[in-house]
Design brief:
With 511 residues, the protein is α/β, with parallel strands linked by helices. The protein folds into 4 domains: 2-164, no CATH class; 179-269, Helix Hairpins; 284-404, 3-Layer(aba) Sandwich (Rossmann fold), CATH 3.40.50.720; 419-510, 2-Layer Sandwich (Alpha-Beta Plaits). It contains 21 helices and 10 strands.
Length: 511
């Protein structure tokens, strides 16, 4: 038996098709970032809604045979398959068996498959007794038509919406965050209901014809304290009315307290929900910019119109700056960019991410750079340095580009004083006041140009003025026309935006 299970485990481990299928199903069922997760969830929601509608319709109307088959076979089969697939992808029994075999070989002891099987079974059993798994199981039962009462289990399919409706999950999460306050309130409610119920029962059981048992008294206390007041039971003595006044006042106070607790919880959660949606939205982009810090440089950068492109997000840990950014209408998340779990929320695996570190602290910028590069080497990090002696440290941290704003400002001031005409020309080009600007053309985006010479590109035809090439950290100003273009080169040109768009249209179309 042990050898048979070991052979099966090895075959499954060596089967790439099996591993890919299991990984794909696990990702579909559990990963919110999966491209097909949304469609799967919408399908399940549709099946739930139609199943409940059939239950309501068949109360007074005969159901056509095809609808009965749809509900009996198709819907129930899908729910059963989903339940079994969740059990299947919960753990990998074959890997657990192989791990136990390796441990046995290492310790030179007999291999027993019982231990990993027992461990896997316990894990699946723990999952099966969770509320969500129980709901999934009960949602299958209506398929058994001979027992008519099982049709009521269709209502458990409604509870499956808890898994697939994000708003409901967020509401439950809010209540969980305030569970101490709510449990305290529930305890006080139970105490007051029981105390008032016992008191009214003792005082009016022999006088009030509507109170025949302790349950009637507790029922009266509950509807009174909740301010519902059906009027079917009312106290007839002065003592009973006094108790009514007390619990009515207490009930109003409790409702106010519960409302304030829930409202405060939702107000705390609201910004978190908004931030999560901002991150989900930007993760769908093929490339985007993460700006760390909302300071003066970030404000200047966004004023240039980058915020209109909708492919950026700001990370700021200072709450006052976060509020200031929100008032300006920018997409901002209140979090610390130096924390690994914060940057891991972004689609670092598939999207092209540029990280712009513009905080006032060099130490913080270094931490952010290290964190980003530890997550993915593909993240392009552009970092601000406040002093020249920090450049080497940022290079060691892995920064791709280092900005020295103080040096740039000093040079521009010097040029403005000594060569005012050139300064005006540079300022006009950099700010685009005269329509012409300096643009970067990254050659890795144009595979048709790699390996050609500069003379093969007719910049004049596109109304572009060629300045030079940035290659391997150096800038080659106006190189010879026979210079060969390499894949990672960046060409610098001056021209209008429409000229660059025409260039991209022509050469990207060829690529």
């Amino acid at each position: 038996m042990n050898e048979t299970l070991l052979t099966i485990a090895r075959k499954l481990h060596n089967s790439s098709r099996y591993r890919k299928a299991k990984l794909a199903i696990r990702d579909l069922l559990t990963n919110p970032q999966n491209d097909y997760k949304k469609y799967f969830d919408l399908t399940i929601v549709f099946l739930i809604v139609t199943s409940v509608m059939i239950l309501i319709y068949e109360v007074k109307h005969p159901v056509p045979l095809w609808i009965e088959y749809y509900d009996l076979y198709f819907v129930s089969l899908v729910f059963a398959a989903e339940y079994l697939l969740r059990l299947w992808v919960l753990n990998d029994v074959s890997e657990m068996i192989l791990d136990e075999y390796r441990d046995s070989r290492f310790l030179d002891k007999p291999f027993r498959a019982k231990k990993p099987l027992k461990k896997a079974f316990k894990q699946k059993l723990r999952y099966m007794i969770t509320p969500s798994a129980i709901i999934d199981l009960l949602a299958i039962f209506p398929a058994y038509r001979p027992v008519r009462v099982l049709r009521i289990f269709v209502l458990f399919r409604v509870l499956k919406l808890l898994r697939y409706t994000k708003s409901i999950n967020q509401f439950i999460e809010v209540l969980k965050n305030k569970q101490f306050e709510l449990y305290t309130l529930l305890f006080l409610l139970a105490f007051m209901v029981m105390t008032a119920g016992i008191a009214i029962y003792v005082l009016e059981e022999r006088i009030n014809p509507n109170i025949e048992s302790l349950f009637d008294a507790i029922y009266w206390a509950l509807i009174t304290i909740s301010t519902v007041g059906f009027g079917d039971i009312a106290p007839v003595t002065d003592e009973g009315r006094t108790i009514s006044i007390i619990i009515i006042v207490f009930g109003i106070a409790m409702i106010s307290f519960a409302t304030s607790v829930i409202v405060s919880a939702f107000s705390e959660k609201l910004n978190e929900v908004k931030e999560s949606r901002i991150i989900e939205k930007i993760n769908k982009s093929e490339s985007f910019l993460i700006i760390c810090g909302y300071g003066q440089m970030t404000k200047m950068f966004l004023r240039q119109g980058h915020s209109k492109k909708k492919d950026y997000i700001i990370l700021e840990k200072d709450s006052e700056r976060v509020e200031a950014a929100r008032r300006m209408g920018y997409d901002v998340v209140h979090d610390d960019a130096s924390r690994t779990e914060v940057l891991q929320r972004f689609n670092t695996k598939y999207a092209k991410i540029t990280l712009l570190c513009l905080t006032n602290s060099d130490v913080e910028n270094i931490y952010i750079t290290l964190t980003a590069k530890s997550i993915s080497k593909k993240i392009e990090v552009i970092v601000r340095a406040n002093a020249q002696n920090m450049v080497k440290k940022f290079e060691y941290a892995g920064a791709d580009h280092i900005l020295l704003p103080h040096d740039v400002v000093n040079n521009m001031i010097h040029i403005a004083i000594t060569q005012p005409t050139m300064y005006k020309a540079l300022h006009a080009v950099l700010t685009g006041k005269d329509a012409a600007q300096i643009y970067e053309i990254h050659m890795h985006r144009y595979s048709d140009l790699a390996g050609k010479t500069l003379s093969d590109i007719d910049f004049k035809a596109f109304k572009l003025l060629f300045l030079g090439i940035h290659r391997n950290g150096e800038f080659l100003f106006n190189p010879a026309s026979d210079t060969t273009i390499e894949h990672n080169d960046v060409l610098l040109v001056i021209g209008r935006g429409i000229s660059l768009e025409h260039f991209e249209e022509i050469h990207r179309g060829v690529a």
